[in-house]
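Recall that a protein's primary structure is simply its ordered list of amino acids. Everything else, from secondary elements to tertiary packing, is in principle encoded there. The following example makes that idea concrete.
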Amino acid sequence: MSINSILELTADPDVEFISYDSKVFAVMDVARESVGADFVLNTGYTGKDITVAIIDTGISPHADLIYPTSRIVGFKDFVNMETRMYDD
């Protein structure tokens, strides 16, 4: 992105924040608390009979999600029309 494009964005009143695109990682020792998951864990909810839909750029078929059986019940890439799960 050129400096002129960045300056143009900073002048737009609808733009609240601009950041450098960098690789980020979830740090699980702080992630649960930072999103308030500890509150939910202490309510007694188990997640039984609950389905969660997430719209994102992709999902990596990480072992925690697919073993011993897949916890991902569906995946659809509406851009590349892929049905196999992957993360771009």
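The chain has four helices and no strands. Helices lie at 3-11, 28-34, 37-41, 63-66.
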